Amino acid sequence: MGTSGATPLRLLWLQASGCGGCTQSLLGAESRAGVFAQLAASGIELLFHPAVSEASGDEALALLADVAAGRQPVDILCVEGALLRGPNGSGRFHLLSGSGRPMIEWVRELAGRARHVLAIGTCTAFGGINAAGDNVTEACGLQFDADAPGGLLGAGFRAAGGLPVINVAGCPTHPGWIVDTLLSLAAGALGEADLDAWQRPRFYAEQLVHHGCSKNEFYEFKASAQKLSDLGCLMENMGCKGTQAHADCNLRAWNGVGSCIRGGFACIACTEPGFEEPGHPFMETPKVAGIPIGLPIDMPKAWFVALAALSKSATPKRVRENSRADHPVIAPALRKDRRG
Length: 340
Known about the structure:
By secondary structure, the chain is of the alpha/beta class. The protein folds into two domains: 9-203, NADH:ubiquinone oxidoreductase-like, 20kDa subunit (Rossmann fold, 3-Layer(aba) Sandwich), CATH 3.40.50; 207-327, Cytochrome-c3 hydrogenase, C-terminal domain (Cytochrome-c3 Hydrogenase, Chain A, domain 2). Helices cover 25% and strands 11% of the residues. The protein is built from eleven helices and eleven strands. It has a five-stranded parallel β-sheet with strand order 2-1-3-5-9. A two-stranded antiparallel ribbon has the order 4-6. Strands 7-8 form a two-stranded antiparallel sheet. Helix 1 (21-27) packs across helix 6. The longest helix is centred in the first third of the chain and has 13 residues, at 57-69.
């Protein structure tokens, strides 16, 4: 669907329990005309977004009521933030302002009317930060409760278009993941086979944060940072889960230049269910007998131990010294013999 006179896809965005960080991320999308102009040019009409639309109060509630009653068609429902089912399943911890009704009731009704339903961010996908600890608010995702199918809408939910909830997970999610998912829907190019086991779009979830990491040379030689300001690899000591987290953060940087690791912070696997409770401080790597518990995906422990020992024995002085400093202290050597 494009701009050749076809009926645009009507997009409705709700914000449940969360920080609004995914909307803030979306507003930073790389688009010369602005992200909403880009969506409009691709055949997506924004009906309502609580943070950017002019409509508010009775006008906004009337629109939601029209959608719930089927008087106003909606093609894409985006929900941002966890769904609060408490206390005791009533949902009354979070009432939609002015309506007197729990947000979870609105979401259930509106999801039943939409052709496609998107969970924007890890809170909406799996519960996220809201579900950490004792979870007294009974927070959950739209179709998952942490890694268990179910959530608010139930494991068997399918939107009118035939797809389950599309989980654009991340904390916050990358603006490009949101935009590309929406544009894929507008083009009719996103099917169930394009989602992974956690119902995340494969175009970003089949990558690892490790791919394209600026610290990969340090990783290869197991030249590890000893503190957060060091240039070295953050996996061995500083809690980095980039070799385990599914996302293309270091291939598709924020604003063209940024990622957590490029900023000197460990990857905390924020696209994964349950990331909010790793069982240890985020910036520490738990170990058994000196070996990290969280090894790279698909790598047997014995192989990792053998590789690490070999790599460390072959570490160039430049890599070893630079890994323990906050700036390069030894530059790469000049190659004098250019015949090789």
